[in-house]
Amino acid sequence: MHPVIDQITREIIQRSGKTRAAYLDRMKAARQAGTARNKISCGNLAHGFASAEREDKLQLRHGTAPNIGIVTAYNDMLSAHQPLGGYPALIKLAAREVGATAQVAGGVPAMCDGVTQGQPGMELSLFSRDVIAMATAVSLSHNMFDGALCLGVCDKIVPGLLIGALSFGHLPVIFVPGGPMPSGLSNPEKSEVRKRYAAGKAGKDELLEAEARAYHTVGTCTFFGTANSNQMMMEVMGLMLPGAAFVNPNTPLRTALTRDAARRVAQITSLGDQYTPLAQVVDEKAVVNAIVGLLATGGSTNHTLHLVAMARSAGIQINWDDFDRLSAAVPLLTRIYPNGDLDVNHFHAAGGMAFLIRELLGAGLLHEDISTVAGGGLSKYAQQPVLEDGKLDWYPVARDSGNDEVLRPIANAFDPEGGIRVLNGNLGRSVIKVSAVARGNRVIEAPCRIFHDQLDLEAAFKRGELDRDCVAVIRFQGPRANGMPELHKLTTPLSVLQGRGHRIAMVTDGRMSGASGRVPAAIHLTPEAAMGGPIGKLRDGDVIRLDAERGMLEAKVPEREFAARECVQADLAGNRFGTGRDLFQNFRDSVCSAEEGASVIKWLE
Question: What is the dotted CATH code of the domain comprising 420-590?
Answer without folding.
Answer: 3.50.30.80
